[in-house]
């Protein structure tokens, strides 16, 4: 129709910008007064009709600017209102107090960073850095190329330091090697890179894999299968290594179905893997999935095939995501302490920022903990063993 204009979509109309703009307005105009508790991410998710990750991304800049502070176990609180627009030089000086966490988004990267944000890396960093006047921010990436663009910011020294959830990509490795070689403070979390002798804080995934197998063996299982994607990250390599070392130590049989790596990580790929295992001459009585998301998908596939969890098949996961405890059969899993990883990473960065000796890297493995829930039981024929109790707080 003549005279009709087509409205172009601007960046401000995207959900993250829209939610962030509204929350900023509420803080600056006193809707949320200094000291007020900000609604929870779940409450904001419902109010704005967006995902929880979108809310987390919208809140991150307010946390980085010091308008909101997060307190572990209590929530987010308004600190103060900005007095006005600062001069550019003041902004640059203040950015030297900025520590940035470079994290994969929920649907990007190979690390599932949406879970990380919710589970406390940022909170752990802020607990150490906040009281010292540092601001903690987050940059999300979807792939290795986007992570490289995030890392480029070190060249203008805008952030004082980075905490990085790294992609195992050659370009990323080269960039991190250049940064650490120039003395720029960087600490890796979740994943270490064999090619780099640098600071990192990761979960002791080898211990986590061993602990889960030892738990299943104690329940009476003798045929246990591991199911997951090909282990390209150190976290998955160590997790699978822990599984295999405990399997050998327990004298369990090992065959072509002991480890099943998914060539396709969709429903069809999982279905093919489950059918292969169930049709084996001696099918496994316990399935150890590399991630909770995989375990929950497997549970539905087993139910479609008339197999009950845990009466017919014990099913366990790894990560202790929020949904694991509320799943239709609460999931036995391994919980990683992301808060502690963030806290320790911040302490290492402070040491580096303050001129600590760079010759010896700090390389820390944080021990995860096994959480027993209803998806694990003794195998058929061993019903004299009691179901494990749910651990307090699980």
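Sequence proposed for the structure above (394 residues):
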């Amino acid at each position: 129709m003549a005279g009709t204009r087509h409205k172009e979509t601007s960046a401000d109309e995207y959900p993250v910008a829209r939610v962030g703009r509204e929350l900023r307005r509420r803080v600056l105009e006193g809707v949320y007064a200094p000291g007020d508790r900000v609604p929870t991410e779940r409450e904001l998710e419902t109010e704005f009709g967006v995902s929880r990750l979108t809310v987390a991304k919208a809140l991150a800049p307010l946390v980085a600017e010091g308008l909101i502070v997060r307190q572990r176990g209590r929530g987010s609180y308004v600190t103060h209102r900005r007095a006005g627009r600062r001069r550019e030089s003041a902004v640059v000086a203040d950015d030297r107090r900025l520590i940035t966490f470079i994290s994969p988004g929920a649907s990007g990267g190979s690390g599932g960073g949406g879970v990380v944000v919710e589970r406390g890396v940022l909170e752990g960093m802020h607990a150490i850095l906040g009281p010292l006047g540092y601001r903690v921010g987050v940059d999300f990436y979807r792939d290795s190329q986007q992570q490289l663009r995030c890392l480029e910011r070190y060249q203008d020294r805008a952030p004082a330091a980075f905490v990085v959830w790294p992609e195992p990509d050659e370009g990323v490795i080269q960039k991190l090697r250049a940064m650490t070689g120039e003395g720029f403070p960087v600490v890796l979390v979740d994943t270490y890179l064999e090619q780099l002798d640098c600071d990192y804080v990761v979960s002791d995934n080898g211990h986590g894999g061993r602990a889960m197998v030892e738990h299943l063996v104690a329940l009476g299982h003798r045929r246990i299968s591991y199911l997951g994607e090909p282990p390209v990250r150190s976290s998955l390599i160590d997790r699978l290594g822990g599984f295999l070392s405990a399997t050998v130590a327990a004298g369990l049989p090992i065959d072509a179905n002991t480890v099943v790596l998914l060539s396709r990580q969709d429903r069809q790929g999982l279905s093919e893997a489950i059918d292969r295992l169930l049709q084996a001459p001696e099918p496994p009585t316990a399935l150890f999935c590399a991630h909770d998301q995989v375990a929950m998908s497997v549970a539905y596939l087993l139910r479609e095939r008339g197999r009950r969890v845990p009466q017919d098949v014990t099913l366990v996961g790894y990560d202790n995501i929020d949904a694991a405890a509320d799943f239709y059969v609460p999931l036995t899993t391994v919980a990683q302490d992301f808060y502690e990883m963030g806290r320790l990473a911040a302490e290492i960065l402070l040491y580096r920022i303050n001129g600590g000796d760079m010759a010896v890297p700090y390389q820390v493995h944080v021990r995860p903990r096994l959480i027993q829930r209803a998806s694990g039981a003794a195998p058929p024929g061993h019903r004299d063993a009691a179901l494990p109790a749910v651990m307090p707080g699980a």
